[in-house]
Amino acid sequence: MNRTHIVLLILVVLAVPSAAVAQARPFPGPDVPQIYQRLLPQIEKIPMFDHHAHPGYADDADVDAMAAPPGTAALRERDTNPELVAAAKALWGYPYNDLSPEHAKWLIEKKAEVKKQRGNQYFSDILDKLNIEQGVANRAMMAEYLDPKRFVWVFFADSFMWPFNNEREAARNADEQVYIPLQGKMLRRWMQQEGLGKLPGNFADYLSFVTHTLEDNQKKGAIAQKFEVAYLRTTKFSDPSRAQAEDIYQRFVSGGIPSERDYRTFQDYIFRYLVSEGGRLHLPVHIHSAVGIGDYFNLSESNILNLENILRDPRYASTTFVMIHGGYPYDRQAIWLAAVKNVYLDSSETEILLYPSEFKNVLKQWLETFPDKVTFGTDCFPYNDALGAEESYWLGVQSSRTALAAALAEMISEGEVTEAQALQLAHGYLHDNAVAIYQGKVH
Ligand SMILES: [Zn+2]
């Protein structure tokens, strides 16, 4: 150690106490815009893992297990959103400043041409453009045109809860008339996959059909099972016995319409069975936990807090739960569920529903509470030919990066974290937190 080293050491030692006594301030300083400008390019360089998305072409029915009913779209999700022009310019070099039908034709033709040229690399190219290393494909079935090196499958597990006559279930409202028959279709596909011509005659065999489907999907590369049950019924699950579920199964497997109470009891048992199998098989459980599309989506019946009894149940301590869309608009409550060691929040959809100025506040509160439990996702979806999965990928990525840089800039300016810590949090949110869940199956 020479004299310079000693001087440096003394300086470091002297610097520590002042940093240690620094207090967080309730207002950000005037340095926020500069910190933001410094962070954003560093954040753009972080390769991302997209924890929730529906990649695929607009004419591909397997892109989801359900279909979107006509309903009111929030302002940013309408085709009048001027940001879509920016997306088209960034992704395709779109030469116009609006998406009028004649101009949008250019976009449709451009995409068709690139699709022909690039074939199965088309969607990998989109990931490359956005610096997404790997992403979830939450789809009914995987598509041949998605490169398995870049896209990992998350399948839908809801349909096991609707094996009986669903006439009354579908008649509840116009949305259910669309959703419920698709659950029946999904269940028949799983039965076909498992070589079943009809439902097993007894309950034990039904449960082993469910388990075999999970195992076979896992063999096909699935990394998680997804529930969109919030679209279909309340997410409050009771705790019935196996005997109760078995009795209902035996009474309705060959026909007849169960009472709503019987159907819910049966579903409550099956949901818990799937959650517990998810722990045994190391097959994490993804649950849609935010507001949904359609005019009949019931916010109070799908409140993320309805699931608290499941998430905090010690019987499911080995099941990893990912609360897809982070419970929005109950995001403030949702983050406290991430206190449970096996519960994570995914921010997809929220970053597209909200503008970055408001999404920044959601993210900031999450990062200030359990930063190691929050993950990035786009929820990209092929809405139509002009607003495809491609553009929603872009919108999700831009919104998340800018809101993240803004949230962290405020946290640095307010004395909550250092710049080095902030960049660690950015890596966690955009990549590391999600990847750590899947035990080497994703990167
Ligand atoms: Zn989704």
Query: How does the major sheet shape up?
Result: 8 strands, parallel
Q: What level of helicity do the residues show?
A: 40-55%
Q: Largest beta sheet: what is the strand line-up?
A: 1-2-3-4-5-6-7-8
Cα distance spanning the termini: 42 Å
Strand segment count? 8
Structural category = alpha/beta
User: Which hetero compounds are present in the coordinates?
Assistant: zinc ion
**Which residues form runs of ≥5 with pLDDT under 50?**
10-20
Roughly how many Å is the radius of gyration? Answer: 24 Å
Sheet-strand content, in percent, reads 5-15%
Mean pLDDT: 93
Shape: globular
Order of helices and strands: HHEHHHEEHHHEHHEHEHEHHEHH
Give the count of helical stretches: 16
Features:
443 residues; alpha/beta; 8-stranded parallel beta sheet; 47% helix; globular; binds zinc ion
Describe the structure.
Helices cover 47% and strands 8% of the residues. It has helices spanning 3-20, 32-44, 83-92, 101-118, 122-130, 167-170, 174-193, 203-219, 242-252, 260-280, 308-311, 331-334, 350-353, 356-367, 389-413, 419-437; strands spanning 48-50, 132-138, 151-156, 224-227, 285-288, 321-324, 343-346, 374-375. Helix 5 runs parallel beside helix 15 and helix 8 packs across helix 10 (260-280). The structure holds zinc ion. Residues 52, 54, 138, 379 line the site of zinc ion.
How are the secondary structure elements laid out?
Blueprint: H1 3-20, H2 32-44, E1 48-50, H3 83-92, H4 101-118, H5 122-130, E2 132-138, E3 151-156, H6 167-170, H7 174-193, H8 203-219, E4 224-227, H9 242-252, H10 260-280, E5 285-288, H11 308-311, E6 321-324, H12 331-334, E7 343-346, H13 350-353, H14 356-367, E8 374-375, H15 389-413, H16 419-437
Parallel strand pairs: 1-2, 2-3, 3-4, 4-5, 5-6, 6-7, 7-8
